[in-house]
User: Fold this.
Amino acid sequence: MKVHELYGKEFVLSYEIFPPKTPQGEINLRAALGELAAYRPGFISVTYGAGGSTRDKTLELALRIRGEFGIMPLVHFTCVGANRTEIERYIAEVKSRGLTNILALRGDPPQGETRFVPPADGFSYASELVSFIRAINGFSIGVAGYPEKHLEAASLDADIDNLKRKVDAGANFIITQLFYNNNDFYEFMNRIRRKGINLPVVPGIMPVTNRANIEKVTTMCGAKIPGELAQRLAACGNVDSVCDVGIEYSVEQCRELKSWGVPGMHFYILNKSQAVKRVIDALA
Ligand code: FAD
Assistant:
């Protein structure tokens, strides 16, 4: 079974995790997955660290997801800092380990830089990586979509034209950047369908759990906090109520997306279980 084959049959729940940096982080992640595995996610995706910093750990963690939890893994991969030969070797390694689902990404410029500069004989855009992987048989390929447009894109339309390049290059499904305003997602969907993109599009969801994570989210990926959510958060007197409001909002957001007809939901769990568990329980 491949990731894209899951969609359209039943509603697909999925999680994104990252390779922990410390032994305690490993313990925490295992405990979180122990709890969240019970909700029978269709797959769990494992991020690829900035600049390839988690190269081996991403694969090891993906194999553990499959071995220990019996859940299908999706490995993220970026073109950052690798030339074609290195990319070819890595993809061959992924395949040799029986991992057949890959999220093909360009990656971000290194910290402090605003422009992405490809390595000599490397790729400039994720669409080139998608073509490259598509030529190697047997992969289900996911790509990133941006309901509020990618930070570097001149306009949403230009960004959607570029998304179309990834689709035409052979992508099988799209996972979106996290967002908090469903109207942005609906507008994005209308526009991509008009451009002839008919792949499953899975919304990325991350409940707000504290003020620091709102700051990080809005600056790192450009997701906007809608006025209504900002007001509800501003009225919170303590840390617990911020978390409660964030979860409450996420439940409302997910309910609405589900009744709109999304094929699944991809939760950015940040290696923790509590917030997402509360959201999924409320949806059930
Ligand atoms: P692209 O699709 O290549 O787009 C990058 C920019 O170039 C966009 O502005 C696009 O409009 C533009 N563009 C594309 N093609 C062309 C063209 N032909 N001509 C001109 N402009 C073009 N990062 C990580 O480092 N590790 C991860 O594990 C990771 N996981 C992610 C998971 C998801 C679901 C998402 C949404 C993002 C993830 N990211 C991750 C972040 C991602 O790497 C960054 O957002 C990155 O800046 C863009 O990657 P991309 O694959 O969308 O790039």
Summary: The chain has one domain: 3-207+262-272. The two ends are 26 Å apart (CA to CA). The mean pLDDT is 95. Residues 47-48, 50, 76, 78, 103, 105-108, 125-127, 144, 150, 152-153, 159, 162, 165-166, 175, 177, 204 surround flavin-adenine dinucleotide (CB under 6 Å).
